[in-house]
Amino acid sequence: SKATVSVLNCVCGGVMHAMMLLALAAAAQAARPNILFLMADQMRFDVMTQNAPAGYRGAGTPNLDRLAAEGVNFAKTYSSVPSCTPARAALLTGMKPWNHGQIGYASIAHKYKVEMVEILAGAGYTTHSVGKDHFGFNGSHPVRHGYETVDLFEGLSSTPDNYTEWFQAEDMGADPSVGWPTLDWNSWRGAAYALDEYLHPTGWTQREAVKLLDRLSAEQARAGAAAKPWFVKVSWHRPHSPYSPPQRLLDLVKDEDVPVKHISADGWDAKFGDNSPGNGCGPSNADAWCGKMPEDELRLAQRCYYAEVRFVDEAIGAVLKAVDTSNTFVLFTSDHGDSQGDHYHYRKTHPFEGGAHVPMVVRWPESMATLGGVSRGQHRIEVTELRDVAPTFFDVAGAGVVDGVDGASTLCVLDPSRPACAGQPWRKVLDSEHSACYNVTTSWNALTDGEMKYIWNAYFDSQYLFNVTADPYEQHDLARLPAHVAEVQHWRSALVAQFEEEGRGPKWVKDGDLVKRTHSTPLSPNYPHN
């Protein structure tokens, strides 16, 4: 009958419509992969095999090496304000230092006008963080900045984070620092972990991340085509000090595996080797930022640092096994580097390569058809920075170009025709800076095009110029040479132009030249005081 035909047409039409919706949902899922953001703390660029100095093999990073072989190694990546919180502000906002407001070490604001996690959530992603956020707390509650779930180890003994609670339950109330009794949270020294390896925060972060990823994979399998993609950040506290690796890994790192500290050939860094009392330098200072250290203690610390890198790489390998890489976009980087004695410097906040130059590796999944023609295993030397991480994730998530963001998707280096690239060429010059932190004389600003790097010390009104391609460890200061006077002036004028464009005012530029600064200025007027 006609009624029967009508019903059949309705049923068939409904089935066809449902099938079409399922197909569209599946296509959308394929076009919007999961995103895994892997992050270390204080990992310098040259611990990876591809970036290691001549004659060395790096710290031993087979999992990062494999990730780079299957993706791209961005070998000229910098942290524009190379200390923990301002670097994480750049990751969170995609902004340059003056615009996100942290031009030195200070607390991350509780709210920014642009926040990566909120935008990804708005694009349909579930959002999760494991390990270190460094976003701060409201009382005993962590500031989440949009993450749906957080499982934290912040690396501060006073912080009521998840790892500390777990550790206390496992070890009868002990403070986690019993694992490194001769060290502290910013020590330049190193020693093997004093407890069972199971209690180490690096292993804990790995296990918590794998549990989360297993749960998310199961949820996606149950939901089928209706499943939401996820964004997961796994952020290890190490190799940030205390340098306290498991003994088994420390035993694998020999003295000959670790490059000797890099010292200048022309004496420009000699003043940083001064151990005079009162300047915070030398072995009598547990948290020294500069100075000459006993060689045996320094070599042990360097071996411990390399072993910590190995431990993080092991953990990365375990986490990668827990995900379907055919539909997961992976990006690895670090918030800043570690000077490790280069030019008599330690820890971070410094403009030199050891502390400011970081690794970055990107691997895109097979499901991203738009990158199907891009060759894997590339070693790119375009200048990239932490402000480019958030725009990269926006690009992958299909969130488009976000207003107020200064960085750009790293995928634009690989395929400039992508919609997120907006037809813009990649940057030619990168700005970086850090206000005085350990010592009032250490405020600086810098510019680099990936080949040349200009550094201006604001306290002394002194300047350095290095060719970081020909001289990757800055052993020859070209600013001292008459042949480079014009080039130094070119870079100084470029820094003046940047300050004027940003509207920094007469405390930064006067009569067309840079103004000395003899006090710390960790915040710009753009910092959101909320």
Molecular structure report:
It is globular and about 70 Å long. The chain has 530 residues and is of the alpha/beta class. Helix 7 packs parallel to helix 9. It contains 13 helices and 19 strands. It starts with a helix and ends in a 16-residue tail after the last strand. Strand 15 and strand 16 form a beta hairpin. The N terminus is likely disordered. Strands 7-4-8-1-9-11-2-12 form an 8-stranded mixed sheet, sandwiched between helices.
| Basic shape | globular
Please describe the biggest sheet, giving its number of strands, its sense, and whether it closes into a barrel: 8 strands, mixed
* Counted beta strands: 19
How many helices? The count is 13
Overall average pLDDT: 92
Strand order of the largest sheet: 7-4-8-1-9-11-2-12
Note the gap between the termini.
70 Å
Stretches where pLDDT is under 50 for at least 5 consecutive residues are 1-30
Q: Could you estimate the helical fraction of the residues in percent?
A: 25-40%
Q: What is the structural class?
A: alpha/beta
Gyration radius, in Å: 24 Å
Strand proportion: 15-25%
